[in-house]
C-alpha cells in the first residue's frame, strides 16, 4: 500500500484507532457549534494538504482507482482484478510525472493499448520468458498493429519489467519498475520520447512474479 511520506510507520488499524479516539475525545469536550466548526476546519485543511502534497494525491488517487475499478466490475473475464487495475493506473501516473519533470506533455491512457500490453505480460508469465519478442516471433510492432492500422504514419515503443514479490508488496513493484526503466537508456528513451502521445499499461501476476508491459504509440507522421 502506498502512503504519503511519513505515514507508513504505523499499520492501518493503528491509524484508525488513533483517529477515532482523538475525534471522540475532542467531540466530548466541545459544544455542538464548536464540533461543526472543527469538522469544517478538518475538511478544509485536509483538502489543502492533498492539493499541495504529491504523495497524498497519489495515495488518494489510488483509492479512487481501486473503488472505481470495483464499481465497474473490472474483475470480469479478460479484465484485470481491481488491485491490478489500480497498479496499472499508478504506473501510468508515475510515468506522466517523469514526463512532467522533463517538460513533456502527459501520455493519454488508452484501454485498448492496455489490453495489448496486458496480453503480453500474461504471455510472458505463462510461457516463462522475458523479452519483447515472443517465442513465436511476434514483436511489439506486431502486437500493436491493430492499434495503428488506420494511421498515416506511426511510431511505437514498449517497456517491460518483472519482479518477484511477497504478500502485500505488489504496490512496491510500481516504484521498482519506474525507477528501473528510468535507469535503462532504452526504456528511459521511450518514457521521455516527445512524439509519443498514447500509452497503456498491462500487469499480470504468475507464480508470485509480476510482469509489467507498457506500450507507447503515436498516430501520424513524426
How would you portray this structure in words?
The chain has 222 residues and is α+β, with helices and mostly antiparallel strands. The protein is built from nine helices and four strands; from the N terminus they run H-H-H-H-E-H-H-H-E-H-H-E-E. The chain has helices spanning 12-29, 32-52, 54-71, 82-101, 111-127, 140-143, 145-148, 172-183, 185-191; strands at residues 108-109, 154-164, 198-206, 209-219. A four-stranded mixed beta sheet has the order 1-3-4-2. The longest helix is centred in the first third of the chain and has 21 residues, at 32-52. The chain starts with 11 loop residues before the first helix and ends with a strand. The model is unreliable at 1-12 and 65-77 (pLDDT under 50).
Strand content: 5-15%
Order of secondary-structure elements: HHHHEHHHEHHEE
Give the assembly state of these chains: single chain
Radius of gyration of CA atoms, rounded to a whole number: 21 Å
Helical amount among residues, as a percent range? 40-55%
H/I helix tally: 9
| Main β sheet profile | 4 strands, mixed
Give the overall pLDDT as a whole number: 79
* Total DSSP E strands: 4
Poorly predicted ranges (pLDDT <50, ≥5 residues)? 1-12, 65-77
What is the distance, rounded to the nearest whole angstrom, between the alpha carbons of the first and last residues?
A: 39 Å
